[in-house]
Amino acid sequence: MSPTRRSFLGSLGGLAAGYALAPALRAAEASGKPLGLALCGLGNYSNGELSPALLETKNVKLVAAITGTREKGVKLAKLHGFDEASIYSYDQWDKVAANKAVDIVYVVTPPGIHAQNVVAAFGAGKHVICEKPMATSVADCDAMIAAGKKAGKRLAIGYRLHFDPYHQELVRLAKTQEFGPFMKIKTANGFTLRRKVWRIEKKLAGGGALMDMGIYSIHACCMATDANPVSVTAKELPKTQPEFFTEVEQAMEFRLEYANGAVADIWTGYDANRAEFYAEAEKGWFKGEKPVFSYRKLNIWTSAKGKLDFGVFRQQQRHMDGVAAAFRDGQPLTCSGELGRRDMVIIDGIYESIRTGKKVELKYA
Ligand code: NAD
Predict the structure, then answer these.
(1) Distance, CA of 335 to chain centre
(2) For residues 121 and 101, what is the distance between their CA atoms, to the nearest angstrom?
(3) Ligand 1 in contact with 234 (CB < 6 A)?
(4) Closest by alpha carbon to 50, among 319, 231, 362, 336?
(5) Residue 26 pLDDT class (50, 70, 90 cuts)
(6) Tens of pLDDT along 97-108?
(7) Contact between residue 85 and residue 101 where contact means Cβ atoms under 8 Å apart
(8) Does the Cβ of 160 fall within 6 Å of ligand 1?
(9) DSSP letter string, 190-226
(10) CB distance 335 to 321 below 8 Å
(11) Could you tell me which of 217, 215, 227 has the C-alpha nearest to residue 292?
(12) Tens of pLDDT, residues 306-361
């Protein structure tokens, strides 16, 4: 024990005070050793956001890569200073297992193969972070959670906004009820997609704009209400590019209803660059205008504080540092596999409502 810590503990003067401070002290004490992370899937998000963030993280560092293109791994190995022997293909999970420097595998592949990658990573005895959406079916989410339990390892979802102070303010307002409950919510999230990518392939994406962009709105609505919706009514909007969106929806509107009477109206689409969020309570509101859900410089206001400004930071650094610390110190996480599954239940209900034209009651058990 360091002299500073010993004298600090000595000055506490009581066991009760020692217990109250124990988690914070444990976290600080353990922060010496960063966990090793392997990125699985070296596409745009890995290279454009996660790799730069991993140059700033304190609790986790990049020590390996799992990729179909070795040259991409070599670039990362040079940038992050890890051995090129720690670059693996997607069928070398036995080698990933044998690499004791790897504590966490971060799965950043298309959603249709998340389950396969996550189950393999748990099989290799690693903790896992999996990008959103967690999977393309509730059954896959269940299989992923079960694989983690069997391996005795943790699962987190890439819900970076859980570590973003603007969205944390929404959570705080919801939990403290400072404005009263948010009863009316309106939100939109989407962008114009015209490139042929996995996002328009049902097998890899699971669905269209909803899976990729609408999920952020769903998530923010649940943050604002501090609850899971009880029902959903949805309708697909007409396709302006039917020859391009042959397998998945281009745009849709849906309504989430909550047990306390709160209602959220949501648009998501691949045919307009939109990001909006407005939540109203009796004594105040929380509002976001583009960008609301993306990485930087969010435009967020509350009726109490005006425009919020939390300075410059990388959400991905906060997300990965936070998740790694929770894995390492055995602390709970809000961005859990169970939450990823919750969102998949809602998404399934939305597609069912589109198919049947009826309101769908959501069942989470
Ligand atoms: P991308 O297409 O740029 O990268 C996907 C990578 O997966 C590519 O390197 C590709 O080669 C690899 N891959 C492995 N197996 C594959 C297969 N069978 N078919 C196709 N590609 C395969 O996509 P991206 O934008 O980096 O998205 C990857 C994941 O990250 C998705 O789940 C996406 O939703 C998520 N994402 C999250 C955020 C966020 O803010 N949290 C942002 C962007 C993307």
Answers:
(1) 6
(2) 14
(3) no
(4) 319
(5) very low
(6) 999 999 999 999
(7) no
(8) yes
(9) E----S--GGG-HHHHSSSHIIIIIHHHHHHHHHHHT
(10) no
(11) 217
(12) 999 999 999 999 999 999 999 999 999 999 999 999 999 999 999 999 999 999 99
Element (H, E) at 112: none
Phi first, then psi, for residue 210 (nearest 5°) are -55, -50
DSSP structure class, residue 77 = H
Q: Is the CB of 157 under 6 A from ligand 1?
A: no
Label residue 353 exposed, middle or buried (CB < 10 Å: 0-12, 13-18, 19+).
Answer: buried
For residue 68, the ligand 1 atom closest to its alpha carbon is: 11
Q: Which of 87, 113, 131 has the most ligand 1 atoms within 8 A of CB, as the residue to mutate?
A: 131
pLDDT of residue 47: 98
pLDDT in the model for residue 31: 53
Specify burial of residue 75 (Cβ count, 10 A radius: 0-12, 13-18, 19+): middle
Phi and psi at 8, nearest 5°, equal -65, -45
> Which residues does 309 contact at the CB level (< 8 Å), separation at least 6?
none
Listed residue (236, 172, 250, 248) closest to 203, CA to CA = 248
Residue reference for tokens 């670039």: 75
The alpha carbon of 137 and the centre of ligand 1 are apart by a number of angstroms equal to 17
- 159 CA: nearest ligand 1 atom: 41
User: 227 is written with which tokens?
Assistant: 């609850």
Ligand 1 contact via 112 beta carbon (within 6 Å): no
Does ligand 1 have an atom closer than 6 angstroms to the CB of 109?
Answer: yes
Range list of H helices, the chain: 3-10, 15-30, 44-45, 51-54, 70-80, 93-98, 114-123, 138-151, 165-176, 202-205, 209, 215-225, 315-329, 337-356
Q: 183, 138, 130, 182: which is closest to 159 by C-alpha?
A: 130
CA angle 106–109–111, rounded 5-degree value? 110
